[in-house]
Amino acid sequence: MTPTKISETSKGVYIIAATPFTDSGELDLESTDSLTDFYLEKGVTGFTILGMMGEAPKLTEAETLTVMDRVLKRVGTRAPVVVGVSHASNRHVERLSKTAMDQGAAGVMLAPVANLKTDEQVFNYYATVAKLLGPEIPICLQDFPQSTGVHMSVSVIHKLIDDFSQVVMLKHEDFPGMRKLSEVREQSMAAGRRRISVLVGNGGLFLPQEMLRGADGAMTGFAYPEMLVQVCKLFDGGRNEEAEDLFNVYLPLLRHEFQYGIGLALRKETLKRRGAIRSAYVRRPGPMLNGTDMAELGRLIQRLERRLAELA
Fold first, then answer.
1. Which of 6, 74, 181, 214 has CB atoms 3.0–4.6 Å from 185's, for a disulfide?
2. Does the entry feature the keyword Lyase, yes or no (predicted)?
């Protein structure tokens, strides 16, 4: 059975998967398996692997292929898997994208290369890659200017949607970007344009507001993915107030995990404490938590668990 490809109607939670390492910094494939199972048990709709949170730039090409093969085989047909293929080399993007699709991926996620300054440059970059990949490989545009330094305007997003049918999803991660999300939806509707899937990132920090502005779900890596799943389902069912109340229970920990600099280390430590991975190691160069950081995180987790017990 062939896995379902991502499409304009994709929605729900596509978890940004961490890449587990051992305490010495080597790939931990047993933890890759246990983390994959953890995400599935929490009810995620799909996966996004080898993204920025997955520390993809720190992996060798051989390690990239190993992680991709391991996750795709573990997930099988149970959920769609989007593979991050962003790279400075178009040839690398093409090779990895085609390999991923041959092995059962549902699509690829692509951020613009650095130093694109104009709308024309951004459009031409994506146009070139889209032609290389062909119409059979679904593309998720990753709009993450805080990391790439590239601003993707609403007009460029719409032109790419109009010109390339394989552009089926936007990972919306501009910051602040809620007005941009509204403009994408409103201008698209006004023009009778093809509606694509929009999944939001930024740790899920603004998920309730973004869902109300037209997002279809989340593509982020919060260490309590069951919250993201439940909130998106509640919004999808029109139970908006209930969704936001639930979100607010997790907000202190979610906000803490979102910190630039040490956020990934906090996320991995939480996943370790939840039994999903064996080591919280972040490959160097990367953040390390000190004793105060660890105690602070533990206190927030305890407060969350106590509150969840009260609600239960």
1. 214
2. yes
